[in-house]
Design goal:
Length: about 850
């Protein structure tokens, strides 16, 4: 096959083939080096001093593991095939291992891309006729030291017969129908030639007993090892005699690699997957339905977060000693929100990720809203939703783990440590990108999404229903629906905008009917993670999402419907002032499309305690009710107001004061007051041993409506105290490795690596101070250094210097001196690609460049 047919061909001819990965990297252009550093950002942290150090770092175990984990299944299968191919391998030989004898067109078409990926990430190097897999990758792909082949292939004939006697090898050659040879090397080569010759191998197997063929079929896809007795059966002896099974240890035989490849029709893998499984649509809805459904979920999300933080308005649950929310407090929160505990954990973690919730940091730590929550409440509803959704997309907190166990068998609690998973952000964006690739309004089947993710990251997603990426994908689909990023399982327009994706087709497109074919997107739009988008791009995407969502959210109402059964019905979301006041005056009885509030003596007393008068409450209801105020509600307010404050509670330890002594007699006669330990001090005053707050609650429980008073006798107005934490920042996501470098950093890094490589590889003139066999820069005296540098200023020649910086790090540099004065040399530094000034006392040695490099 010609090199023109290989888009991944290395331009270097075979005669100039690189002898190491460092040489292969040295032959790359800047764009190729930038692509390597972009795909493997760990290689740039810190920036390597030269290409040799870059190659060394690219071959370290940790770096290669990260690179292999980011390969899709087909690229990984290509690397596995190269691991079992002869080293170095030719392009056509590797393609044959992947595509088989029949040269599967799908495999042949996808193979250049897979090999190009391996080359770009420096896992494979060399020209097409000498492909090599990085040694560390070969070791990592081996399942075990006992079975080093990642494809289930056994050792080659040459490897399996390495310790065999020459006489035994000649017996095998003769039994296989081959002429005997004079030495073992040629005999092994003859046997290998037989096993790799398709026609002759087929003819040999045609002679095999059926039982022998059955044995080979059981070993062909691995493991290739089998056990035999001291006196094997006839069909096994037939195989052993002809070398189709070779002994490796007493009682153990192995199927040689060449035999297995013949039986596999040349394939290294039983199933080759050149293309990932497609995401299948489960249902298709009108885009308008998807967007309005998602908008409804978005409004519910805002209401739920507000309800959660309103419930913790005066200080939420206590923080556990180990951090986090207790199981009991999570249950109580779930009851208050009328959701399950896992869903409550999601909303609590979402508020925490958005910076709306934190611990107050006082002696008895409690959770409470942050000052940022008050700012968030003042934003338009669409912008508040964008804040929540953006925090969810960027957060590595994983609420689905709440209730599980960590590595030390400790329970993972909501808001506690141990919930960060660095893969969460990548999985969320990838799942949403797969949804974006579907036709507009189509929701996917969960199984097809999981299958696609497992193909894209096979090493991170083993075939298990319990691996982390699978669970993260399931949680993403559920959380996106609860948050309103998706509607009915399909990506909404506001979700698409938030991801920075272009808008889909207009909403007036006709929906697909039951038998209609769904349009196919030729190229899916990738969802770009927040970390790779500039702040300006993120702000633009957020603004566009808010503009799309705003008209879909329901308009707040300024009225309710009062009913004769002491209830009020809110037919939709209420204005914030109306909702806040009604929340004090009445208790929420039921939620849903319409919220039902119930007025009770306790709720009316709560409004009076907050400083409202009876006339204020009558005016409020009359102004905000579309129906006449029912007479029973008017009577309830007047009755509670008439009794409110008739009794006065103060501190003696506590006392009760009332102008009506008959009411005090009634209290003393009531058996329920015995726990308060009351006694009469005067006809209108009772003293109690209880605290004023306990006395207040005790008399209210008995059906009275007392009011607290100050030391001056004034009625105390009790308003809810809004407890806030000090200013807090939202939790920072845990990065999944080093961030992807931007173009500016990549350009600077490539220039620095090139310059450092120039300094380390540039030849220099021989120097009398050189030690025999020394490749290091010689040390020169200060006088010699000064004289050489001054001469270079006059001649304009470049020098090779050794330099020790203020931190004590020694480097080699190629400089072109410009001037020398005051103990400093100013020169153009080829290594840094800029003009710099160096103290001469830090220059350890200097040498002239070779004539052909000067």
């Amino acid at each position: 096959m010609s090199t023109e047919e290989h888009p991944t061909t290395d331009p270097a001819p075979a005669g100039n083939a690189p002898r190491s990965l460092a040489e292969a990297l040295r032959a790359r252009d800047d764009a190729s080096l930038s692509a390597l550093l972009r795909s493997r950002p760990d290689l740039i942290t810190p920036v390597p001093t030269d290409l040799t150090q870059l190659a060394t770092r690219a071959g370290t175990r940790a770096s290669v593991v990260r690179a292999l984990e980011r390969l899709d299944r087909f690229a990984l299968q290509t690397a596995e095939a190269l691991a079992v191919a002869p080293e170095p391998a030719a392009y056509d030989d590797l393609l044959a291992l992947m595509a088989g004898d029949d040269r599967d067109p799908a495999v042949t078409g996808a193979f250049p891309r897979a090999l190009g990926t391996l080359r770009e990430q420096a896992l494979v190097w060399g020209p097409d006729d000498r492909l090599r897999l990085v040694r560390t990758a070969r070791e990592l792909l081996a399942p075990s030291p006992q079975h080093p082949s990642p494809t289930g292939l056994g050792p080659t004939v040459s490897e399996a017969t390495a310790g065999m006697s020459p006489g035994r090898i000649q017996e095998i050659v003769t039994a296989a129908g081959l002429p005997s040879t004079h030495d073992s090397v040629s005999a092994v080569a003859s046997l290998t030639g037989l096993f790799t010759d398709r026609a002759r191998m087929s003819a040999l197997l045609d002679e095999a007993p059926a039982e022998s063929v059955d044995v080979l079929s059981r070993l062909v896809w691995g493991p290739p090892y089998g056990q035999v007795t001291a006196d094997p059966a006839r069909h096994l002896r037939w195989l052993i005699a002809r070398g189709l099974l070779l002994p490796t240890a007493p009682g153990t035989v192995v199927l040689p690699r060449e035999v297995a490849l013949h039986l596999r029709a040349g394939r290294a893998h039983r199933v080759t997957e050149p293309v990932g499984p497609s995401v299948e649509p489960a249902a298709t809805h009108r885009p308008q339905v998807v967007d309005t459904t998602a908008a409804g979920q978005a409004y519910t999300a805002l209401a739920t977060v507000e309800e959660l933080l309103k419930d913790w308005h005066e200080g939420g649950p206590a923080v556990l000693r180990a951090g986090g929310l207790s199981v009991r407090d999570l249950k109580r929160t779930a009851v208050a929100l009328d959701v399950s505990e896992p869903v409550a954990a999601f909303w609590v973690e979402l508020a925490y990720a958005a910076g709306l919730l934190a611990s107050d940091g006082v002696a008895e730590e409690r959770y409470a809203a942050t000052p940022r929550y008050d700012e968030w409440l003042e934003l338009p509803a669409a912008e508040r939703w964008v804040g929540l959704a953006s925090a969810w997309l960027a957060s590595t907190r994983t609420p689905g783990l709440v209730g599980g166990r960590d590595a030390k068998d400790r329970t993972l609690s909501a808001l506690g440590p141990g919930l960060d998973r660095s893969a969460a952000v990548e999985v969320r964006h990838r799942v949403l990108a797969l949804l974006a690739a579907l036709p507009e309004g189509a929701s996917p089947t969960q199984a097809s999404v999981l299958a696609r993710l497992q193909w894209e990251r096979p090493l991170r997603s083993p075939q298990s229903t319990d691996d982390l990426r699978t669970r993260l994908a399931r949680w993403t689909l559920s959380e996106a629906e609860s948050l309103g990023v998706t509607g009915r399982g399909a990506l909404s327009a506001q979700g698409r905008a938030l991801l920075g994706l272009p808008p889909a087709t207009p909403h007036d497109a006709e929906p697909a009917g039951p038998g209609a074919k769904l349009p196919v997107h030729k190229r899916p739009h990738p969802a770009t993670p927040e970390s790779t988008r500039s702040p300006a791009e993120q702000a633009a995407a957020a603004a566009r999402a808010a503009r799309i969502l705003a008209p879909l959210l329901p308009e707040p109402l300024d009225h309710v419907l009062l009913q004769a059964d002491l209830t009020a019905v809110a037919p939709g979301p209420l204005d914030r002032p109306l909702a806040d006041t009604l929340g004090v005056l009445a208790d929420v009885e039921s939620k849903g499309g319409a919220t039902v509030y119930r007025f009770t003596p306790g709720s009316v007393r709560r409004a009076l305690d907050a400083g409202r008068s009876a006339s204020d409450l009558h005016a409020f209801l009359a102004a905000h009710s579309r129906t006449p105020v029912p007479q029973p509600l008017t009577y309830l307010i007047d009755d509670v107001a008439r009794r409110h404050g008739h009794l006065r509670i103060g501190s003696a330890s506590a006392y009760v004061r009332c102008d009506d002594d008959s009411m005090l007699n009634e209290i003393l006669a009531d058996k329920r007051s015995q726990g308060l330990r009351l006694r009469r001090l005067a006809p209108t005053v009772l003293a109690a041993q209880a605290e004023p707050a306990a006395l207040l609650e005790g008399l209210r429980a008995m059906g009275f409506a007392p009011a607290a008073e100050s030391a001056e006798g004034d009625v105390l107005i009790t308003r809810a105290h809004a407890h806030r934490t000090p200013p807090r920042t939202a939790p920072a996501p845990v990065p999944d490795g080093p961030p992807v470098p931007d173009a500016t950093l990549l350009g600077a890094a490539v220039r620095a690596i090139r310059a450092g490589d120039l300094a380390s590889t540039t030849p220099r003139k021989p120097n009398a101070a050189d030690l025999p066999g020394s490749a290091d820069l010689p040390r020169t005296s200060p006088a010699e250094t000064l004289a050489t540098v001054q001469a270079a200023v006059l001649t304009g020649e470049a020098l090779w210097i050794g330099y020790v910086n203020a931190e004590g790090s020694a480097t080699q540099r190629v400089i072109a001196p410009i001037r020398v004065e005051g103990g400093f040399v100013t020169a153009y530094d080829h290594t840094a690609d800029e003009v710099r000034t160096y103290p001469l006392h830090r220059v350890t040695g200097v040498a002239e460049l070779a004539d052909d490099q000067a």
